[in-house]
Amino acid sequence: MVTEEDWIRTRAGLTFGQRFRGTVTRILDPGATGIFVDIGLPVGGFVDVLLPISAEHWPAEGAEADFEVWWADERHRVRLKPVDRRFLREDFDEWQAEWRPRWPEDVPVERAWVTAAVASRRATGLVEEPLRAAGWRPGRRVSVDGWREALERGVLVRMHAAAERFLAEFGGLEMEIGGPGVDVGRTPFHFRPDRCAGEEDRFAEWSETLGRDLFPIGELDEGRFFLGIDETGEIYLVETWLATYGPVQDALEKLVLGVAPTRVASAF
């Protein structure tokens, strides 16, 4: 069983483009999901969206091949890219140009949460368009009084100025998105803090652990995860572990485009 400490140490030593010789240990849903690869680390490797459409072109179980580090998110495994083009999707060059142009190499995974891929998506309006479709407009302002009242009935959380500013502009938006993202799937999320009612103790405990004042702002993936904002305007994924999406603009881009947050703590 891979521990959180094993994962943190392994991830800290990884760089994009780093190569490993690996052995395919399992094929999950041939032609649909992906392959698991043993690359000699405490954690295993996985290849998914980069594989050919037809399973007959996937490497077989027991096959050895070279792989590059493609990503490493909060899941305890290394996302890999096959070096041999026979094992890459047929439209890989077009796919990479669309989703990961100028993807870095020799850059530590820990220091590269976003690349020119995300910057290029921002320029095309793929972040702004879903926000507008959900009801956002420049200068949007809504009342936050109902959310303040619902969550401040106890003494565990208080709506600070950063939360009030964020919710006045984005509160109430429901983002019905899906499909592949830059490095994780794009999942629905909303900024409805009232749906976090009953979880105030979770936010209070994480606030104490982090040394920040976390206020609930919504949910991700149909309630699987909670979203919170601290007094500096940094947005977090909140569960039995904590990860940061960064400041508001960066967080919105990550959430819309499918960029994994950076884990900062586990199990209070």
Structure description:
The two termini are 20 Å apart. Strand 2 and strand 3 form a beta hairpin. Residues 113-120 have low confidence and may be disordered. The chain is built from eight helices and twelve strands. Helix content is 26%, strand content 24%. With 268 residues, the protein is an alpha+beta fold. A seven-stranded antiparallel β-sheet has the order 6-7-8-9-10-11-12. A five-stranded mixed beta barrel has the order 1-2-3-5-4. It folds into two domains: 4-111, Nucleic acid-binding proteins (OB fold (Dihydrolipoamide Acetyltransferase, E2P), Beta Barrel); 118-266, SMI1/KNR4-like, CATH 3.40.1580. The chain has helices at 4-12, 92-99, 116-124, 128-133, 145-151, 161-170, 200-210, 248-257, and strands at residues 19-28, 34-38, 45-47, 64-71, 78-82, 174-175, 189-190, 215-220, 225-229, 234-238, 241-247, 262-266.
Put the structure in a nutshell:
By secondary structure, the protein is of the alpha+beta class. Helix content is 26%, strand content 24%.
Task: Describe how the helices and strands are arranged.
Elements: H1 4-12, E1 19-28, E2 34-38, E3 45-47, E4 64-71, E5 78-82, H2 92-99, H3 116-124, H4 128-133, H5 145-151, H6 161-170, E6 174-175, E7 189-190, H7 200-210, E8 215-220, E9 225-229, E10 234-238, E11 241-247, H8 248-257, E12 262-266
Parallel strand pairs: 3-5
Antiparallel strand pairs: 1-2, 1-4, 2-3, 4-5, 6-7, 7-8, 8-9, 9-10, 10-11, 11-12
